[in-house]
Specification:
Length: 130
C-alpha cells in the first residue's frame, strides 16, 4: 500500500500537475475559521459552458494524494457528522495557483487499498465547479 501512495506522489510531481490550495471554512463571520493546505494536484477540465454573456461555468476533475494533507494535519478541526474530517468535503474550495481560479468541490471519491484487515487512503478523486 505504501508503494501505491509513493507512486502517486511521484506521478504528481511530473509535468502536467500543479500546486493548489485546498481550503475549508467553518463557522460564520465574524468567527469563521479557515484551514488551508497546499497540495500537488492533477487537474483537468471536464466541461465548460457559457451561461450569460461572458460568464462561463467550468467543471474540473482533480486527483490529489493524502500525503500533504496528513503532513500538514489539515484541517486541524473537526466537523460534526463527517466520518473523516481530513478528507476534502463538498463545499470545500480548491484554488489553482497557476491561474488563481477557485472551484467549489462538489464530489469527493476517496480510494482505499485494503490488505487483510487494514485499509489505507491512497488517492483522492474530486470534481469541482467554478
Amino acid at each position: 500500500m505504501r508503494q501505491e501512495l509513493a507512486d502517486l506522489d511521484t506521478a504528481l510531481l511530473d509535468d502536467g500537475s500543479e500546486n493548489a490550495i485546498l481550503r475549508r471554512v467553518t463557522g460564520v463571520p465574524p468567527s469563521a475559521t479557515t484551514a488551508e493546505v497546499t497540495v500537488r494536484a492533477k487537474i483537468v477540465t471536464v466541461a465548460q459552458s457559457e451561461l450569460i454573456g461572458s460568464t462561463h461555468q467550468e467543471a474540473i476533475g482533480i486527483i490529489i494524494s493524502p500525503t500533504q494533507i496528513a503532513a500538514a494535519g489539515w484541517p486541524g478541526l473537526s466537523q460534526s457528522g463527517v466520518s473523516d474530517s481530513t478528507l476534502p468535503q463538498p463545499n470545500d474550495v480548491i484554488k489553482r495557483l497557476a491561474n488563481g481560479h477557485e472551484y467549489v468541490i462538489s464530489m469527493v471519491d476517496p480510494v482505499y487499498l485494503i490488505e487483510g484487515s487494514v485499509s489505507r487512503l491512497v488517492r483522492i478523486n474530486m470534481k469541482a465547479m467554478r
